[in-house]
UniProtKB/TrEMBL annotation:
<dbReference type="Pfam" id="PF00232">
    <property type="entry name" value="Glyco_hydro_1"/>
</dbReference>
<dbReference type="GO" id="GO:0008422">
    <property type="term" value="F:beta-glucosidase activity"/>
</dbReference>
<dbReference type="GO" id="GO:0016052">
    <property type="term" value="P:carbohydrate catabolic process"/>
</dbReference>
<dbReference type="InterPro" id="IPR033132">
    <property type="entry name" value="GH_1_N_CS"/>
</dbReference>
<dbReference type="InterPro" id="IPR018120">
    <property type="entry name" value="Glyco_hydro_1_AS"/>
</dbReference>
<dbReference type="InterPro" id="IPR001360">
    <property type="entry name" value="Glyco_hydro_1"/>
</dbReference>
<keyword id="KW-0378">Hydrolase</keyword>
<keyword id="KW-0326">Glycosidase</keyword>
<protein>
    <submittedName>
        <fullName>6-phospho-beta-glucosidase</fullName>
    </submittedName>
</protein>
<dbReference type="InterPro" id="IPR017853">
    <property type="entry name" value="GH"/>
</dbReference>
<dbReference type="GO" id="GO:0005829">
    <property type="term" value="C:cytosol"/>
</dbReference>
<comment type="similarity">
    <text>Belongs to the glycosyl hydrolase 1 family.</text>
</comment>
<feature type="active site" description="Nucleophile">
    <location>
        <position position="384"/>
    </location>
</feature>
Length: 485
């Protein structure tokens, strides 16, 4: 629609904040009736630049379950947000957070995943967290599934490969929507749902003994069940709490062609489509035609109930959220790979990279925002973006100018996208407090504005300290993004 002028600043109601996941911050993995989750049976990585989240077997799960410690499973301890949440939220409030994204651990509410009645102690913990947020007028943004489904469902029915998991999940979502009616304005269904093509960590499905083609069949079938569960959750929320909104969440992996060669351009387009396929289903409410060829060429045959596609069409998400850490490069015959938040692709010679090999591309964020706005015309929300770095703690703080520089450049590109006309709801920087890394389970991969005294082995006082970036982000929020100096 034509109108004169264009927006030149962040909207007045822009939602500044931060984001975490239960399995990376909470700890208290065996407290108050909580069940074990998929995240808590994956061992810490040996090599920080080689991510392998699908190398899980039935035997490794049983070994993990039998281990009563957190030595090899750092996500079991997190940074003890379970007992420090009041202190941590007070620090978030001091920075001026408008919103805090966190996940409600399914296994804290339904320990095995298939119970008919919730664990009241689990609900009470999240009641307490939300009450603390309300005290500081911070809105909660709740992720319903963030790589932490109950391991009981993996053992019982191989996670999301079973259609029965839909009913189990939607019993959980209905419980949450009813219990927190009027208190949670925004929900997300599945965190980085597209990473389900990488296996266990997102779907809870053990398929390590399968061939590549069998794994593709297994993983896309499991993802179909998640699409259906997301649509049902949307229906539930709209009926139970009509004022609340629900969104999808994608690990955005903008793909560039390695050269102007049309074959490389086409290869990049195909990779980008495979990334956006998931949002096509959740936001447009239908499987896009371009995936029919991919499914056929890979012998993927999805099993659907008669009303599945009608359900997807009738209940698309209200808004689209995504994580953004890096872009990737591809060509018709892909060579060397670069890892980063589940992305693989060729290295881009124009970009710098982090200590973990993740290439840094602020302009790519604007490109992604513009493309996604043009494609969907639904409100967008950047719910993860941050720099994992090795911080040096000295004199009671961390002088993290590198983190400030990274965030400044990305926020500048968000502002450019808003000037382009993108409807951007907010920005929840990933890991406002140091947490356990998802990909490698390291503590030394630090993202936060707040330093936590804990090392990779779990040693430390857990005392919290403000980094230089703490006051910088406070200034950014206070000025609504106008002062990035």
């Amino acid at each position: 629609m034509y109108k004169e002028g264009y927006p030149q600043q962040f909207p007045k109601n822009f939602l500044w904040g931060g984001a975490t996941a239960a399995n990376q911050v909470e700890g208290a993995w065996n407290v108050d009736g909580k069940g074990l989750t998929t995240a808590e049976v994956v061992k810490k990585a040996d090599d920080r630049k080689k991510i392998s989240m699908d190398a899980v077997t039935k035997e490794s799960i049983e070994t993990a379950i039998a281990d009563p410690t957190d030595k090899n499973y750092p996500k079991r301890r997190g940074v003890d947000f379970y007992h420090h949440y009041k202190e941590d939220i007070q620090l978030f409030a001091e920075m001026g957070f408008k919103i805090y994204r966190f996940s409600i651990a399914w296994a804290r509410v339904f320990p095995n995943g298939d119970e008919t009645e919730p664990n009241q102690a689990g609900l009470q913990f999240y009641d307490d967290v939300i009450s603390e947020l309300e005290q500081y007028h911070i809105l909660p943004l709740v992720t319903l599934s963030h790589y932490e489904m109950p391991i009981g469902l993996t053992k019982k029915q191989n996670g999301w490969l079973s259609r029965d998991t839909i009913a189990d999940f939607n019993r959980f979502t209905e419980t949450i929507f009813k219990h927190f009616k009027g208190r949670v304005p925004y929900y997300l269904t599945f965190n980085e749902i597209n990473t389900g093509v990488w296996g266990f960590h997102e779907t809870g499905v053990v398929d390590s003994d399968q061939s590549h083609q069998e794994q593709l069949q297994t993983r896309y079938q499991a993802l179909h069940h998640q699409f259906v569960a997301s649509a049902i959750a949307t229906k539930q929320l709209h009926e139970i709490d009509p004022d609340a909104k629900i969104g999808s969440m994608l690990a955005r992996m903008q793909t560039y062609p390695a050269t102007p060669n049309p074959a490389d351009v086409q290869a990049a387009q195909m990779e980008d489509d495979k990334n956006l396929f998931f949002t096509d289903v959740q936001a447009r409410g239908e499987y896009p035609e371009y995936m029919n060829r991919y499914f056929a060429e890979n012998n993927i045959k999805l099993k659907m109930a008669p009303d599945d596609q009608e359900l997807l069409k009738k209940y698309p998400v209200d808004f689209i959220s995504f994580s953004y850490y890096m872009t990737t490069v591809t060509k018709a015959n892909q060579g060397a790979e670069v890892n980063g938040n589940m992305a693989t692709g060729g290295r881009n010679p124009y970009l710098e990279e982090s200590d973990w090999g993740w290439q840094i591309d602020p302009v790519g964020l604007r490109i992604s925002l513009d493309e996604m706005w043009d494609r969907y015309r639904k409100p967008l929300f950047v719910v993860e973006n941050g720099l994992g770095a090795v911080d040096k703690f000295e004199d009671g703080t961390v002088h993290d100018a590198y983190r400030i520089d990274y965030l400044r450049k990305h926020i500048e590109q968000m502002k450019q996208a808003i000037e382009d006309g993108v409807d951007l709801m907010g920005y929840t920087m990933w890991g406002p407090i140091d947490l356990i890394s998802f990909s490698t389970s390291e503590m030394s991969k630090r993202y936060g504005f707040i330093y936590v005294d804990q090392d990779d082995d779990g040693n430390g006082t857990l005392k919290r300290y403000k980094k230089d970036s703490f006051n910088w982000y406070k200034q950014v929020i206070a000025s609504n993004g106008a002062d990035l100096s």
